[in-house]
Amino acid sequence: MNNKKSFFRLDLNAYKETKWPIIAGVVFSVFFWGIVLNLIVYPSKWVLPILKPIITGTHQLVNGTFIGYLLLFIVIVYPIIFYIGKVNKKDVGIEWKLLPQALIVVSVFWVAAQTIGLVFTLVSGGSLSFTTYWTSAGLTAGLGVYISQFFGCAPWEEIVFRGFLLLQVFLKLKKQNLQFHPLFRLIIALIISQGIFALFHIPNQIYNGASSADMIFTLSKIFLLGIIISLIYLRTKNLFIAMGIHALWNLPNLFVSDNIGGFIAVILALVLLVGWSLFSKANPVKISKQADIIA
Q1: CA distance 197 to 181
Q2: Which pLDDT tens digit goes with each residue over 17-57?
Q3: Please, which residues have CB within 8 angstroms of residue 130's CB and are 6 or more apart in sequence?
Q4: Using one digit for the tens of pLDDT, what is the confidence trace for 156-196?
Q5: Would you say 288 and 238 are in contact if contact means Cβ atoms under 8 Å apart?
Q6: Nearest CA to 271 among 98, 108, 100?
Q7: Which three-class secondary structure string do you get for 204-269?
Q8: Domain membership flag for residue 220
Q9: How many Cα atoms are found within 13 Å in the side-chain-facing hemisphere of 39?
Q10: Burial environment of residue 78 by CB neighbours within 10 A (0 to 12, 13 to 18, 19 or more)
Q11: Which of 10, 19, 99, 109 has the most CB atoms around its CB within 10 Å?
Q12: Three-state secondary structure call for residue 278
């Protein structure tokens, strides 16, 4: 192990490498099911009558987003990554001992985001009230959005695009006998994996009727989100933190618009990246894959 401290603390070389067909199968399945769900299933007239009893029966605690990502877990993560690919849960970043640390970090992140949003509203002369989304959605529907993000969207996307694809692309680049510095390999792996992450959202953009200009802007933001959350994972060695930050990023702020809320999330994510050393020293956790990736 290199004795020099690295900004990125996750040792990508310590994780199990899978075969190219598994990586290709995951990428193909990601796009295939993204197209099927957004352009065939969701727009069809027969889906709503099937899902409506579940959604209304739970008072929207379970919504279409949660059901869709549950399906993606069933058809991609478990059969292709875990079973056929023989990649274990730790090799995609799932270490349950890290969950308490993540709960603390994500809770502080959420409180900070809402507090900053509240202060911004008061300073800018706005009224002290919840945003329209939360007042119109209702309590159970609002909780359903939280459930769909924390237990559906964010876990699936983090496991697939950060826990699996980012690490596997990095490992495959190492095997190509290219005399690249590890940091350069990491940059290439980030661009490829998070580019796929952004492109995965194209069918959803089409389903939502986005214009070409809006789609390009949104996909650029998603790519940036993927890069920032990847850096958080590499910095903290905790995929649960990445999941939590991802979920909060997708959730509307209680007091300010999505645009301001997104800006607040970016600032807090950067603060987390820079200040992680202080937190990790105060809250040490033993991690299985612990080494520096940048030699």
Answers
A1: 24
A2: 999 999 999 999 999 999 999 999 989 888 878 888 999 99
A3: 254, 255
A4: 999 999 999 999 999 998 776 666 678 888 999 999 999 99
A5: no
A6: 108
A7: HHHHCCCCHHHHHHHHHHHHHHHHHHHHHHHHHCCHHHHHHHHHHHHCCCCCCCHHHHHHHHHHHH
A8: yes
A9: 12
A10: exposed
A11: 10
A12: helix
Contacts of 89-92 spanning 24+ positions with Cβ under 8 A? 90/288, 90/289, 91/15, 91/16, 91/167, 92/159, 92/163, 92/164, 92/167, 92/239
Helix, strand, coil fractions of the chain, as percent rounded to 5 = 75, 0, 25
As a whole number of angstroms, the distance between CA 254 and CA 118 comes to 8
Task: For residue 27, give its domain range.
Answer: 12-282
Question: Considering the domain boundaries, does residue 124 fall inside one?
Answer: yes
The answer to whether residue 6 is domain-embedded is no
Does 224 map to a domain?
yes
Quick check: 99 pLDDT over 70? yes
Residue corresponding to tokens 């730790």: 90
| pLDDT given at position 294 | 45
Among the listed residues 23, 156, 131, 167, the one whose alpha carbon sits nearest the alpha carbon of residue 85 = 23
3-state secondary structure of 46: coil
- Amino acid residing at 59: H
Number of structural domains (the chain) is 1
The residues with which 290 forms a beta bridge, in sequence order, are 10
Lowest mean pLDDT among 25-29, 231-235, 286-290: 286-290
Distance separating alpha carbons of residues 27 and 194, to the nearest angstrom: 12
Tokens 């940091």 label which residue? Answer: 183
Amino acid at residue number 251: L
